[in-house]
Amino acid sequence: MSKVTLFWWLLAPLFWSFSTQANAQFLDVEFSGELVHLSCKVSAGSVKKEIQLENLRMESLNLGETSVITPFSIEIDHCQRAELGKLIKIAWHGTQLVNIDGDNYLITQGDSGVVLGIMDSKDKLIDWDEPIDVGSVAVVNDEQSLSFGVVARKPPYGYVGTGNFSGWATFSVEYK
41-175: which CATH topology? Predict the structure, then answer.
């Protein structure tokens, strides 16, 4: 094979590539999605929880004390045998948070000025927007409870007053 022929066979694809690129229009397409596991589910009764905090004492909160923990739980159900032992992680999300001594609390709406903290099953304040291990799947085809608690306290600046309050938080669950 002559040098000219060899040159043509080696470089022809390159020239062809440039000529087709000059006449072609390129479109970048980005694909994204989320793969979810639909076997275990948050039970219907836990999708919208309403937790009532009772017997909060304004004087105690204004002295810097935290209220007693009001326990609540989130139930999951419909787990299959294949999910047994899988780690359950929950991340709590709040739109209005305030930092007090390195911990974040949920700012409430209403007249009282109370802020709320969510506690894990070991009575430790949760880190907002961070998945935390809350156990593993231990029950098949029945409800399993994940324990939490909520506490009230005064805001970092100012005091609480009498009146109603409410706060909203959301959570996301993942199984690994």
Answer: Immunoglobulin-like (2.60.40)
